[in-house]
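Exercise 7.
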Amino acid sequence: MEVEDEYLVSCLLQDETRFPSAVSHLIQDGVAIIRLPTELECIPSRAFHNFRRVLREMDVDRHRRGVTVLPNDTDSAHATGYHHLGGLSRRYNRYRRGFIFSDGNECVVDTMFRDTTRRLFQLLHAIFQQTISALEDALGLPTKWFQNQLGPTVSHSQWHLKEYIDTLSSASSSSSSSSPPSPPSSENEIRKQDNDGDDNDNDNNSNDDLSTIRLGTHTDPSLLSVIIHDRPGVQDDSFGLQYRKASKGQSSRGVEDPSADRWNHITATGHGIAVIMVGSVMAAISANQIPACRHRVVKGFNNSNNTIHRNDGNDHDRVDAVVPTRVAATLFGRPAPNALLQTLPCPRWSQSIPVHTKNKKTPITFEAWNARVARKYEKSKRNKKNK
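Solution. The predicted structure, written as tokens, is:
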């Protein structure tokens, strides 16, 4: 799929500080928030509108023509299609349903859905690419180092368009026509499932109210992830998205940062906001000099201002009803399967990366690294079940 778009890039680069500033936050905290140009807000708005339309149609007819429903045993790493509530991975999707787009493939469904989601992908990838370019400048890497060594990301990335269900009663209602796996029926089951993950990605803080978790603590298997939420303009709250700073307790001034040891709310969301997070692949190739962002989604996003003003493309503005669910689009910018994951050649880290880390054996491919992570996850599940 061809995604480089001069209009998108020129809009994004109108503010010359937008991406350098974001990179500073990514290196320090693992997460950054950027304000998108107002003229680009119509892109996510139209895609989200068509996504919700298709979901409503599927609630009426689970076999809606044009929708490819993914079986639960599908290899989600390279899947393209729709999954029901709780499908593919019960741990991660028990409160989610929606579409997965992998390796440059599209879900056609119908013309409007295809065109608007294609445009949203182009925007997400343009944000990813401009952030990567700014990161190359900040680290003193050659121009297009990531694309030349690990790409092309446009044809190997994955992105999701997902609806999050806030309450179990809503989940039962939304899924009644689809018969997906049931969501957990008790807090004990939620606790059991939240403990079924990798130790490095899972937060088992006994002080957490696990009944509020809608997407458990994890890091993304990406270089960078880009998230846009379905809300009008810019809203000054997290819409349920929380993160832990990756700065190891120190601020850029070297003083202790109390926010690094607790959950923090993303400060703004909406069609005019892109949330960027460091993924575990970036952490791996930077020898953890750019740590991955641990994040989660919690219950409570129905209480926010979600009145959506739409433009149907014919200059006819209208107002949809207050939306009852959280919808988000997330791009996982990732390397090609055969790309070798090797330590970034960054001069500024030459003294801080241990020698044994620099002189590792043959670099591992992204595909092999992904498989190793999956094996570690399955081993962790077995060990915890045997305890």
